[in-house]
Amino acid sequence: MDINKIIPYARNARHNKKAIPAVADSIRQFGLRGQIVLESRENPVIVTGHTRVEACKSLGWKEIPDENIAYCDGLTEDEIKAYRIADNKTGEISTWNISMLKSEVKSIGKLDMSKFGCDFKSKDLPSGAHILNNNHGWNMANAATLARNQRREEATFFSMPTDGRLTSYAGYTVAHEYGHLVQNALYQRAISRGSSVSADTFSEIAKKEINSIAMKKYSSKGVTMSTYGTYNSYEFFAEAFANAHLGAPNAIGLAMRDYLRDNKLK
Fold it and tell me: Which residues contact 234 (CB under 8 A, 6 or more apart)?
């Protein structure tokens, strides 16, 4: 299909300009593997793929292969608008296991992944600080919004050690995010000392240790964790860390304090 016949959506709310060079590098390196979705053959307005089209133009492409073009046949006008937004927004929900990503990037070899946003070579960043460039950095910058969300989803048996004000919840959320940094630093230290376990396994082991301390030393019966903290072992660690460092900690928070004393970072 003639690339100049593809029409950008005039009301596209996604800011794509900064991503174009990286997408162009990806297409140059690996080829155009994804699809560009248009409204219809009669009205070839972009639904998804604005960045891909602009990247292809920057590479001097005159045509997009037909196999890389799809259409929204059978969708209503409102459904097309909704799909255009959903395709972008759903990608924002996922997060990265940074330690696993770092390991995977290292295993690739000679390909330069820094141009795709994977640069772990800086000597200036302390262990775990690169997380601040990803979702946790956004979380910390938007602590108040996340605090409102967290307040809404507290479990029935979980009481956050705050004074009930939004600022306290925001502080709790920032502590939660810092907990992720601490866990990553502990994992990186374990790897540097010769451990070969995955980040997931390391996180699960930490969760079991903290739970064991809570049950044996502080008589926890497994109801002292927020709903968010039960999502996975990473969130458990972060919630336990926050609980340990703000207000009056519950059994999980007290167990986390013991765990951190036994696994002190220097």
Answer: 97, 180, 183, 203
